[in-house]
Amino acid sequence: MFLVNVYQSLTLFFFLIDYLMVRFTYFLLKKVSWMTHTSRLNWVFLICFALLSIAVFVAALLFPAFRAQAPAPLRDLILPAPEPMIISVLYSTEKAGWLAEVIDGFEALRPMVNGHPVQVEVEKMGSREMYLAVLDGTRKPDIISPASMLQIAILQDQSTATFGAPVVNMADQSTCRSVVTTPLVLVAWEERAQVLWGSNPGPDLWKDLQSALVDPAGWSSYGHPDWGYIKFGHTDPLRSNSGFMTILLMTYDYYGKTNGLTAANITSNPAYQEWFLDFEQSISQFEYSTGPLMEKMIAYGPSTYDIVAVYEATAIEQAQNAVGRYGELHVYYPPVTVWSDHPFCILNAEWVTPEKAEASKLFIDYLLRPEVQEVALMKYGFRPVEASIALDQPGSPFNTYSTNGFKSDLSGYPTIQPASGDVLNILLEFWARNIAR
User: Fold this and answer.
1) 351 with 328: CB under 8 angstroms?
2) Distance CA 95, CA 14 (A)
3) In this predicted model, what pLDDT tens digit does every residue of 206-235 receive, in sequence order?
4) CA gap 61, 56 in Å, rounded
5) Minimal CA–CA distance to 75: which of 2, 17, 7?
6) Residue 284 and residue 300: Cα distance in Å, rounded?
């Protein structure tokens, strides 16, 4: 860097020298030969300047970090543009709108790693699909961002079993961080929800819903035979995180616990298995993703779904689309909740170089900027992890749609503590063996 500092100091000096020499040359050419009267000291300076220029340009060719030190006009004419450093990101579909909007802002800042501009290449995938793609080698991303740490827990356990070491470490905040959050909620046509459980479903929400779904009389038991059967929907747990979170909450609720779920709870209790399978078999179809599930509910109304389990952010994003269609939509928060915390985790894999890891951290840091978090809240209904951003600020969707049941303060709702990745995977296997279609 000493060479660079010397060069920068001399650049301005020699600009002045060049100007004076041009004036002096013009004068000399009118009098005598220029070569005869040029001072020896000027020649020394010119030779030093030339050598330094050559050195900097050579350094810029060999080391892209030096590129910025070369004079801009000559640099852009002579030196090739540095290759971009591309970081690849697999992400869950719920973040598509937000990421598409903010990635351009990140790249516009021209972030650099070792002289290379950082660019982001993204691919949408289902949360389970993406960690399976990493395990089988069909995808080699630098960052993986499923909808929840649930998938990171499974990937951590299964990659350890497969490769002998985990490719992610969910406990390492320097490489694996949540960037936005949203809880699982139930969205219902308000008229029907009021008939089913009133304004407040209470602590037995899941048990009451299961009883209603398996009742062969359907809505007739509630005085509305013209409404047919009670129709509940959630996504396919093998393809979508919200479906996985739904069956996880159902299971925790059955046992009346918020932590300590075991494999035996799933595989060795016939009463639970009967309750769970009756619940799931009452559902006619499982959508592949949360967005399409919510869109179908709004498009076709209660003829297709009375109640669905989706993310709060998805419900917020679609709230305006439901106005004036089939009555009011209302959001209900389960008595015990689970959070979709959207982690961005840098993989500990051979294809993730130290430079790519550094570039990935720059991108994650950018997503945590207050102005970027603000976009996630105001336009897409996510809860920022940046604590300085108020959920109930003017214009917030939590204010706009408060009459639909959205709540900014969920401090009174307990949160489940997910089991180990192995237990979570057993629950998925149980569903796949008995329900998957």
Assistant:
1) no
2) 53
3) 999 999 999 999 999 999 999 999 999 999
4) 9
5) 7
6) 15
Would you state the structure tokens that stand for residue 192, as one six-digit string?
């029907």
Residues 6+ apart with CB under 8 A from 332: 185, 186, 187, 188, 193, 201, 205, 405
Question: Is domain 85-178+343-381 classified as CATH 3.30.10.20?
Answer: no
Structure tokens at 400: 């706009």
Q: Is the pLDDT of residue 24 over 50?
A: no
Within 10 A of 57 (CB to CB), how many other CB atoms are there?
Answer: 19
- Written as six digits, the tokens of 396 are 């917030």
- Give the span between the Cα atoms of 163 and 46, in whole angstroms: 60
Cα–Cα distance for residue pair 371/385, rounded to 1 Å: 12
Q: Which residues does 215 contact at the CB level (< 8 Å), separation at least 6?
A: 221, 230
Stretch 252-276: mean pLDDT:
96
**Residue 56 pLDDT > 80, yes or no?**
no
How distant, in Å, are the alpha carbons of 12, 14, 30, 34, 239 from that of 38?
Answer: 21, 16, 14, 6, 79
- Fold of the CATH domain 182-340+393-434: D-Maltodextrin-Binding Protein; domain 2 (3.40.190)
Q: Can you tell me the mean pLDDT for 417-436?
A: 93
- What is the DSSP annotation of 145-211? E-SSHHHHHHHHHHHHHHHSS-S--TT-TTTEEE-EEEEEEEEEEHHHHHHHHTT---TTHHHHHHH
Write down the domain spans for the chain: 2-78, 85-178+343-381, 182-340+393-434
Q: How far apart are CA 302 and CA 305, in angstroms?
A: 5
- Rounded CA-CA distance 277/32 in Å is 104
Do the Cβ atoms of 192 and 301 come closer than 8 Å? no
C-alpha closest to that of 166 among 134, 210, 138, 141: 134
